[in-house]
């Protein structure tokens, strides 16, 4: 009553952290799909690699079959789990690390720091964008695998339940690690030179492009320190026959270890992303 009489308007309540974060998801997703280089190197890259491997090695027959050439799985089916895991890593680590480093360099983060947007809302926007694009990427990759490459997909509900938790753990972990890794490049221009080699090496030593047990033991142990190895192993447990588990380092899918490793890296990524994140560089 008194505010009406005095002619002052009641103050509008500021948007909550959650509302701001959710509003950023749509904005970040639109920016993602408007960037041709990001689309090529993160969204479509697993499709390209799956197509290359399928075309290059299909003539040699199925993988894991008998001496008479029967049994086993097609080349496309063998590489599909690795491409799904690589897509999760690219959508989170590579995409966010390069993107955020660029935003630091061009002053975008400095400007955002002067707005009501909190770091948590910013994180929600980035992670939400990664989830949206990773879900679209995985869905399209599975559709291409089934209807273009004629790859049989699992029918057991428990397999898809495993896919769901490995995917969620992997995407969130990759997103947090991408935010943390963005603090390493000194500028936006150097971000791709810093981030892409790291991501590429991890793909080669984690069983994405090469059979994991064909790698030297020291390299297998090194890959086991990082999350991509466990993401790829979890995906192989979903899309490959159980007989392929003997080709893993311990001779089994070790899903408990997959969950533990991804959970541990999720916590590490969360802590590192929050500790290292700044609206502006300290040395700026």
From TrEMBL:
GO MF, one annotated term: ABC-type transporter activity
Key word Cell membrane present: yes
One Pfam family per UniProt: ABC2_membrane
Broad class of the protein's primary localization: membrane
InterPro entries documented for this protein: ABC-2_transporter (IPR052902), ABC2_TM (IPR013525), ABC2_TM_bact-type (IPR047817), ABC_2_transport (IPR000412)
Family: Belongs to the ABC-2 integral membrane protein family.
Name of the protein: Transport permease protein
């Amino acid at each position: 009553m008194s505010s009406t009489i005095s002619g002052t308007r009641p103050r509008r309540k500021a948007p909550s952290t959650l509302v701001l974060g959710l509003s950023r998801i749509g904005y970040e997703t639109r920016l993602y799909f408007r960037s041709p280089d990001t689309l090529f190197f993160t969204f479509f890259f697993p499709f390209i690699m799956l197509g290359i491997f399928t075309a290059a090695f299909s003539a040699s027959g199925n993988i894991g079959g008998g001496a008479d050439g029967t049994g086993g799985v097609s080349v496309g089916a063998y590489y599909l789990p690795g491409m799904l895991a690589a897509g999760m890593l690219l959508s989170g680590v590579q995409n966010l690390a390069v993107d955020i480093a660029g935003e630091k360099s061009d002053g975008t983060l400095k400007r955002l720091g002067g707005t009501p947007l909190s770091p948590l809302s910013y994180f929600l926007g980035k992670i939400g964008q990664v989830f949206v694009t990773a879900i679209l990427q995985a869905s399209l990759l599975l559709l291409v695998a089934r209807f273009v490459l004629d790859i049989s997909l699992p029918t057991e509900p428990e397999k898809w339940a495993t896919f769901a938790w490995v995917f969620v753990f992997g995407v969130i972990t990759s997103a947090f690690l991408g935010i943390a890794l963005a603090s390493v490049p000194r500028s936006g221009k150097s971000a791709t030179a810093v981030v892409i080699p790291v991501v590429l090496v991890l793909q080669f030593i984690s069983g994405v492009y090469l059979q994991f047990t064909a790698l030297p033991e020291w390299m297998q142990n090194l890959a086991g320190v990082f999350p991509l190895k466990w993401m790829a192993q979890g995906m192989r447990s979903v899309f490959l026959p159980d007989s392929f588990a003997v080709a893993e380092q311990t001779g089994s899918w070790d899903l408990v270890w997959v969950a533990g490793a991804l959970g541990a890296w999720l916590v590490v990524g969360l802590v590192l992303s929050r500790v290292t994140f700044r609206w502006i560089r300290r040395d700026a």
